[in-house]
Amino acid sequence: MSGILYIIGTPIGNMEDITLRQLRMLQELDFICAEDTRVTLKLLNRYEIKNQLVSFHEHSSQADAQRIIDRIIAGESCGVVTDAGMPCISDPGEVLVKLCAENNIEVRVVPGPSAVVSAAALSGLNTRRFTFEGFLPVPKKERSERLEALRNETGAMIFYEAPHKLKTTLSDLAGAFGGDRRISLCRELTKLHEEVLRLTLSEAVEYYSEHEPKGEYVLVLEGSSDTSSEEMTVEQALVLVRKLVDMGERPVDACKEVAKEHGFRKSDLYSAYCKE
């Protein structure tokens, strides 16, 4: 009988943000796959947990992943962790989950802190809907295309950014969305120097021209409010419907939400959606 893969959340900064279940699972599992074994070892040592650590990161090969899957098929249970927060979202661990699904291996979640959700809650912006974008592409052409695709996004947009790239990213965001667009910059979440700045993009660019960015950032950018119901076409409304469906909403509920926000009849949108 095969083992189980456990997706285990870990603290995003403050090591006290760990649950009793997480500690028990990290102790009881046959082995743990870690993005950086040195980082995970600090957490295990803090709570006097002795367990085998296996390195699995973005540069790991398909053969590395298969060796882990083979151990689970043979009956061992494995926990996958990232350096901080929930693994398997914009994270190498998603490869293991995909392989487990292909091999009919059971996967369970042991949830923990998430920098994305924490930043959204702190932002002070409308986050009833949001899209997680992770790190923007570095090449200028790809970055420009990605920002252009987000130009009419009405939900809040959440990005990760490193301190040495923050100034460039803020300038690019201001160029794409306008200096008046509001942004919340969440820095060093749950750590000693946690800070949240709620500014416009122009204010953020000016602030960081005088202050050197420090620490890891989660950026929460306000969604667009420029598209009115009078200007929006059915095709544009269907784009929003498809985004909601991709996020897990039922088509009928997605059509109802978009229709209410933008002045369409739900039946018209649903009929158009079903004809696609």
Task: Give an overview in words.
The chain is of the alpha/beta class and 276 residues long. The protein is 42% helix and 18% strand. The protein contains 11 helices and 10 strands. It has helices spanning 20-28, 37-46, 62-73, 93-102, 115-122, 140-149, 166-177, 201-210, 234-246, 251-262, 266-275; strands at 4-8, 31-34, 53-55, 78-81, 106-110, 130-134, 156-161, 182-187, 195-200, 217-221. It has a 5-stranded parallel sheet, with helices on both faces. The protein has a 5-stranded mixed sheet with strand order 6-7-10-8-9. α7 (166-177) packs antiparallel against α8. The longest helix is centred in the C-terminal third of the chain and has 13 residues, at 234-246. It is globular. The model has no long low-confidence stretch (mean pLDDT 93).
Instruction: Determine the mean pLDDT.
Output: 93
Instruction: Give me the Rg, rounded.
Output: 21 Å
What is the number of beta strands? Answer: 10
Q: Into which percent range does the helicity of residues fall?
A: 40-55%
Beta-sheet strand percentage? 15-25%
Q: Give me the number of helical elements.
A: 11
Give me the side-by-side strand order of the main sheet: 3-2-4-1-5
Shape: globular
* Biggest β-sheet strands, sense, barrel: 5 strands, parallel
Secondary structure category: alpha/beta
Unreliable runs: none
What are the secondary-structure elements, in order, as H or E? EHEHEHEHEHEHEHEEHEHHH
Q: How far is it from the N-terminal to the C-terminal residue, by CA? A: 44 Å
